[in-house]
Specification:
Length: about 160
Amino acid sequence: MAIRNLRYEGDEILSKKSRDIDVIDDKILELANDMFDTMHKFEGVGLAGPQVGILKRIIVIDLYEEGEQYALINPVIISQKGEQIVDEGCLSFPNQFAKVRRAKEIVVEALDLKGKKVKIKGKDLLAQALQHEIDHLNGEVFVNKCEAGTLETITAEDKAKKNK
């Protein structure tokens, strides 16, 4: 397991479309494990291949309190319903936060790390995380989808002031 280097705002890889993964081999399994390690180190909820410099359709998600982790290969949203406006941030855009309009419930089809086809039904935070990470695979980032006037930068200093 290793911590991968994150790609940040301004890195052109974040605006490129990822390629499908044809074979789930040891390299892909290692990538998934490294992505979980990297996401956990930076206290993220999700991470997509492009965020660690890999233009492949792989995402990892860990909601922590739910106790369930997801590593999904070639995920595709097959249905969505409802709407929610959520606070969102991103490991590739540190300290930036905004309100984003997302579907409240979605269904995603993907392959798991064993190559088995899975269907994930997500609502609320899981739906949000799935949409956010799948956007990354399509070269889309949350700062381009935020509700007008809601994007703000909150530094560690700002957080410390709020908590006093």
